[in-house]
UniProtKB/TrEMBL annotation:
InterPro entries: Methyltransf_25 (IPR041698), SAM-dependent_MTases_sf (IPR029063), Trans_acon_MeTrfase_C (IPR023149). This is Trans-aconitate 2-methyltransferase. One of its GO terms (molecular function) is trans-aconitate 2-methyltransferase activity. One of its GO terms (biological process) is methylation. CDD domains: AdoMet_MTases. It holds the Pfam family Methyltransf_25. It comes from the Bacteria. It comes from Phytohabitans flavus.
Length: 255
């Protein structure tokens, strides 16, 4: 289960890659825009502001996230749905997926399928995390094994920039792919949990939390927090948290 409030604790930091991604989309007057994995909808609203003449739709598998999105009264049609079952509409000129496809096993097969269904000159923009070998995930993976969860945390479930570029170029698109490592300086709040643990609770720790009962979860969480404190030390009043992101923007042939 997704918790919108937990996810939005670092809303500014999580939004930066979205703005860097959509800045590379050259569409001027799209007829329709889709945000796949729209979460709480705050960034989908940015798409509606940029293209006020477009019909904007947000899709997410989490009923909790869509419920939060609908509270915002954004000029967007929000729906609960599985990205694996989604098919582009005939007039869809822009597709955005920001930090969502890493949760969809086999998403590499979806991208060429979506491209084939998009109209000529349409844009597909994707961002996924590329931090699966970071100290945070290595600590999470090791502790999951120790806790008897097996290989619960997947190795990198995404391609590198060249992999996405090759995939979409092979589907006939013009492609721009790159990566960026953001250095987030997370504030340390006296008496609060380590900020990297708080960050992970909004995303990577969700499956672990769902797999453990309350007592085992509290032990797991406490142990992970101590390990994170060693690899992400406090310096002054902040913790430096490098976070690699992978981007690809593709345009279909024609127009």
């Amino acid at each position: 289960m997704w918790d919108p409030a937990s996810y939005l604790r670092f809303g500014g930091e999580r939004a930066r890659p979205f703005f860097d991604l959509v800045a590379r989309i050259g569409a001027e007057r799209p007829r329709a825009v889709a945000d796949l994995g729209c979460g709480p909808g705050n960034l989908t609203a940015v798409l509606a502001e940029r293209w006020p003449g477009a019909r904007v739709r947000g899709l997410d598998s989490s009923a909790e996230m869509i419920g939060q999105a609908r509270v915002g009264s954004y000029p967007v049609d929000f729906e609960v749905g599985d990205l694996r079952d989604w098919t582009p509409e005939a007039d869809l000129d822009v597709v955005v997926s920001n930090a969502a496809l890493q949760w969809v096993p086999g998403h590499e097969a979806l991208l060429p399928r979506w491209v084939a269904a998009l109209p000529p000159g349409a844009w597909l923009a994707v961002q996924v995390p590329g931090n699966f070998d970071a100290p945070s995930h290595l600590a999470l993976r090791a502790l999951s094994v120790e806790a008897g969860l097996g290989d619960f945390v997947r190795d990198a479930p995404v391609l590198d920039p060249a992999g996405y570029a090759d995939l979409l170029a092979g589907a006939g698109c013009a492609v721009d792919a790159w990566e960026t490592t953001y250095l987030h300086r997370l504030p340390v709040v006296p008496g609060a949990e380590h900020p990297v643990l708080t960050w992970m609770e909004g995303t990577a720790l969700r499956p672990v939390r769902a797999a453990l009962d309350h007592e085992r979860w509290e032990v797991f969480r406490d142990t992970l927090g101590k390990r994170l404190a060693k690899v992400y030390p406090v310096r002054g009043t902040v913790v430096s948290f490098p976070f690699r992101r992978i981007f690809v923007v593709a345009r279909t042939q024609g127009d």
